[in-house]
Amino acid sequence: MQFNEVKTFILDKLTQELPAHLTYHSVGHIRDVYDSAGYLAKEEGVRGEDLQLLLTAALFHDSGFLISQKEHEKLSCEVCKQYLPGFGYTREQIEKICGMVIATRIPQQPQNLLEQIICDADLDYLGRDDFFPIGDQLFSELKTFKVINTEHEWNRLQVDFLEKHHYFTATALQLRKHKKEENLMLVREKVKSAAV
After folding, report:
1. Backbone phi, psi, residue 26, to 5°
2. Which of 62, 73, 77, 91 could hold 98 in an S-S bridge, CB 3.0 to 4.6 Å?
3. What confidence score (pLDDT) does residue 69 get?
4. Are 117 and 39 in contact (CB under 8 A)?
5. Collapsing DSSP states into helix, strand and coil, what is residue 62?
6. How far apart are CA 15 and CA 143, in angstroms?
7. Is 75 in a helix, a strand, or coil?
8. Helices 151-164 and 170-195, packing angle to 10 deg
9. In Å, what is the CA distance from 104 to each residue of 3, 33, 134, 157?
10. What is the mean pLDDT of the chain?
């Protein structure tokens, strides 16, 4: 497994080839998820090969956007299967990575600790201070795809999403749950004041 080589390869590819209108699903998001996954893994006691597989999944989890935003998790698996064998990853390792990638699909349904960690890392920002600036990037992207049109629609969508979302790992629950609740209250206020 040539982890460092694959990391350089996929980050370069994403930097050069991801469409510019992806203001949220960008290389910045990939790096954020990678860093969050590494931190959560350390706290949850994940090491060795499992850690490398997790970090590989974090690097590839949105690579399907190179092809299309529809079904991008499935497409991300195709990207894994296309490139990872060339970096010494076995079929079994790639299956594990694909399991993690597919687990990030909303609604998240992780089946094991590694899948729980990548799910929590993917939505780590929901319980952080940079929730609103990152949310603005997603709002902009969703407007481009004509998923939503107004800020009010966006805030209602966020309230619904935040109410349904939950973190899986003990670390994320301890670290992010309280701030996520605060962020939810702030978005609810925005929805309420717009309705007046």
Report:
1. -110, 180
2. 77
3. 85
4. no
5. coil
6. 22
7. helix
8. 150
9. 21, 11, 18, 18
10. 96
Tokens 């994320």 sit at which residue? 172
Of 46, 175, 33, nearest in space to 118 by CA: 33
Closest among 12, 52, 44 to 30, alpha carbons compared: 12
The pair of three-digit structure tokens given for residue 115, joined into one six-digit string = 């899948």
Kindly state the average pLDDT of the residues 156-166: 96
Of the candidates 112, 191, 99, the one whose C-alpha atom is nearest the C-alpha of residue 153 is: 191
195: pLDDT strictly greater than 80: no
Domains of the chain and any CATH numbers: 3-195 (1.10.3210.10)
Task: Tell me how far apart the alpha carbons of residues 173 and 150 are, in angstroms, rounded to a whole number.
Answer: 31
Length of the chain: 196
Report pTM.
0.95
Amino acid, res. 87: F
Q: What residue has token string 């701030």?
A: 179
Q: Report the percent of the chain where pLDDT is more than 90.
A: 93
Residue whose token pair is 């939505």:
123
Apex CA 66: angle with CA 27 and CA 32, to 5°? 20
* pLDDT tens digits, 85-114: 999 999 999 999 999 999 999 999 999 999
Q: Rounded to a whole number, what is the largest CA-CA distance in the chain?
A: 59
Cβ neighbors of 192 (< 8 A, separation 6 or more) are none
Cβ contacts of 124 within 8 Å, gap of 6 or more: 32, 33, 36, 40, 172, 176
